[in-house]
Amino acid sequence: MRNIRLIARLDIKAPNLVKGIQLEGLRKLGDPNEFALKYYLQGADEIFYTDVVASLYERNSLLDILEKTTNNIFIPITVGGGLRSIKDVAAILRAGADKVSINTAAIKDPNIITAISRKFGSQCMVLSIQAKWQGSYWEAYYDNGREHSNLDVVEWAKKGEKLGAGEIILTSVDKEGTTKGFDVELVKAVTDSVQIPVIASGGMGEINDVDAVIKDGHADAIAMAHVLHYNNLTIDNVRNHCANNNIPVRVYTLTEND
Amino acid sequence: MKDIVIVDYGMGNIKSIQRGLEQVGASVILSSDPVVITNASRLVLPGVGAFYDGMKGLQNAGLVNAIHDFVRIGNPLLGICLGMQMLLDQSEEHGIHTGLGLIPGNVKMIPESNHGEFSRKIPHIGWTQIKNPGFQNWKGSCLDDIQAGEYFYFVHSFMAVPEKKEYLLAQCEDEGLLVAAAIKRDNITGLQFHPEKSGKAGLKILHKFINT
């Protein structure tokens, strides 16, 4: 088993870090760069930024935040939210991102997955899926959980893989921000259907929540937001918990010089 | 300040590598000028994406000969990720394509495995430990300050297979498969992982590279 990646997820409404419940009712929490730096120093394996208002080219937008982030953070950074074209992706990568996550643009034209993958490599193309349970299946949503796609999440994940996605970030809209735990069934349904890595996102509330989503859901990585932003847990709390519970993670020792 | 030239041929995220090098004290020049590249005191060849696109980028910018000339002068060259794979003779990524031929060997696809003891998903993404397989001493290389077992960030679907084991500087084990993590031949070093994205341990490698 590869090391499970512990990812700090920061939703941004520039210039602020925001957090909602089920992607709604956003509260401002502060300067995203300060939060990102804190998580880097705690030993996060990656940083994941989502621009919830898709304001790529506006003043003081995500591009500015990203440029600041790369000044003092030396771990992989994924950026999503409102990226519509190869040109947008190129701008984000030039500003210092390593990967992009694409949801709305891929639902509207799945060929963009292939185009990004061919141009920048599949490792760069993260398919973002926002999943909502519809009684008998999970439906993929877009525009930050507001719009229906009529796509079955599992089928969409398989199609995304075939089109060239290198990774999937799977957000449970039902669980997101609720701190009631991950949607393990959802994660398992997707990891059982694709061969590319899957990041489970949405619902982490307490430290024991990681066990089921990894052991039963087979997530390759977990994204955490609420528990980190509100100081309920730190990345190293989670890392230590994993190491003590037979979940392989990178061994990272905090040092005073940080 | 140490002057470092990063080969700027339109591939990938050179800003991160630039920032990493600056963080450890380098003064960085991004260049696609063959004269600047040939005469650099140290050269970094970055790259993410497909092998063919990378080589085409170097060819279109007229930089293949410049890199060969640089290597002949004898100063240190560091290839990172795709920049490492392009050091080899050829790659089988989307057809057979010729590389720079600076280190004998090939680039092959990482075999996928979804049964038995190991489940190996492609791409290999994440933090993986490296070790010294015992063909070269890390002392004097850019891994000089690194402890065996340290973790680095990998993201790749293809891997370098040097012709001789003697070129292996470091390996990692990915789900039962030994993968070249670093290769070295004389003044040419290649890293499969991203030192600029591997936190403190990665910065130590960049620091060593600019100071040896």
Main attributes of the structure:
heterodimer, A: 258 residues, TIM Barrel, eight-stranded parallel beta barrel, 10 helices, B: Rossmann fold, nine-stranded mixed beta sheet, four-stranded mixed beta sheet, 24% helix, globular
Characterize the structure shown:
The complex is a heterodimer of chains A (258) and B (212). Chain A is 33% helix and 27% strand. With 258 residues, chain A is α/β, with parallel strands linked by helices. Chain A has an eight-stranded parallel β-barrel, surrounded by seven helices. The longest helix of chain A is centred in the first third of the chain and has 11 residues, at 62-72. The two termini of chain A are 30 Å apart. The mean pLDDT of chain A is 93. Chain B is globular. Chain B has one domain (2-210): Rossmann fold (3-Layer(aba) Sandwich). Chain B is of the alpha/beta class and 212 residues long. The chains are: A alpha/beta (258), B alpha/beta (212). Chain A binds chain B through residues 1-3, 5, 40, 43, 45, 70-71, 74-76, 93-98, 118-124, 166-167, 195-197, 220-221, 250-252, 258, and chain B through 12-13, 15-16, 19-20, 23, 48-50, 53, 82, 112, 114, 119, 121-128, 151, 153, 155-157, 174-175, 194, 196-200, 202-203.
User: Strand sequence of the main sheet of chain A, in spatial order?
Assistant: 1-4-5-6-7-10-11-12
Give the averaged pLDDT of chain B, no decimals: 94
Total number of β-strand segments of chain A?
A: 12
Ends distance of chain B? 13 Å
Explain the layout of strands and helices.
The complex is a heterodimer of chains A (258) and B (212).
Chain A: E1 5-13, E2 16-21, E3 24-30, H1 32-41, E4 46-51, H2 62-72, E5 77-80, H3 86-94, E6 99-102, H4 104-108, H5 111-120, E7 125-133, E8 138-142, E9 147-152, H6 153-163, E10 167-172, H7 184-191, E11 198-201, H8 209-215, E12 221-224, H9 226-229, H10 235-244
Parallel strand pairs in A: 1-4, 1-12, 4-5, 5-6, 6-7, 7-10, 10-11, 11-12
Antiparallel strand pairs in A: 1-2, 2-3, 7-8, 8-9
Helix pairs in contact in A: 1-2
Chain B: E1 2-7, H1 14-23, E2 26-31, H2 34-38, E3 43-45, H3 51-60, H4 64-73, E4 77-80, H5 82-85, E5 90-91, E6 97-98, E7 105-109, E8 113-115, E9 118-120, E10 124-131, E11 151-156, E12 158-162, E13 168-174, E14 177-185, E15 188-191, H6 199-210
Parallel strand pairs in B: 1-2, 1-3, 3-4, 4-15, 5-7
Antiparallel strand pairs in B: 5-6, 7-12, 8-9, 10-11, 10-13, 13-14, 14-15
